[in-house]
Design brief:
The chain is an alpha+beta fold. The protein has four helices and four strands, in the order E-H-E-E-H-E-H-H.
């Protein structure tokens, strides 16, 4: 399961790439929660201006379905790979899928349980009042980046 976007103009600034990465993580996490699944492996996908595709994977100690955890893992991989190079596509994915009900006990460690509760509450509010009912602070910067891409 993944989410990705292609830019109208290539992006090389890590901060701008992060601004586009965050809503992709929100979208992916929302789909995972909607399907009642979680993933233990996070994949970052980047496509260079010469159409070369770079993918990096990170195995988490627990399965996740939160944007916060997906973004943290993908952001670390992005920081190692982006380094000023221009990219035309960014994506994030999860694999090693499990049903969220059978996720291990570690699933609730390190604030994951709280993040999951918060994101489920946001899902419920957005479901009732529309996608724009609650906007995370990080998404405000992402909205500007998305307009460029």
């Amino acid at each position: 399961m993944s989410a990705e976007t292609t830019f109208n103009e290539d992006i090389s600034a890590v901060g701008e790439l992060e601004d586009v990465l965050w809503p992709l993580c929100e979208k992916l996490a929302g789909h995972a929660r909607g399907e009642a699944i979680a993933g233990r492996v996070v994949t970052l996908k980047l496509r260079a201006t010469d159409f070369r595709i770079l993918t990096r994977r990170r195995t988490l100690p627990f399965a996740t379905q939160t944007a916060r955890t997906l973004f943290a893992a993908a952001r670390e991989m992005l920081a190692l790979e982006a380094r000023g190079q221009a990219w035309r596509l960014i994506g994030v994915g999860i694999s090693d899928i499990v049903e969220s009900a059978v996720a291990s006990g570690d699933f609730f460690d390190d604030g994951e349980s709280r993040a999951l509760s918060e994101e489920k509450a946001i899902d419920a509010l957005r479901g009732r009042f529309g996608a724009e009912a609650i906007i995370m602070g990080r998404s405000l910067r992402a909205t500007d980046a998305t307009k460029r891409g």
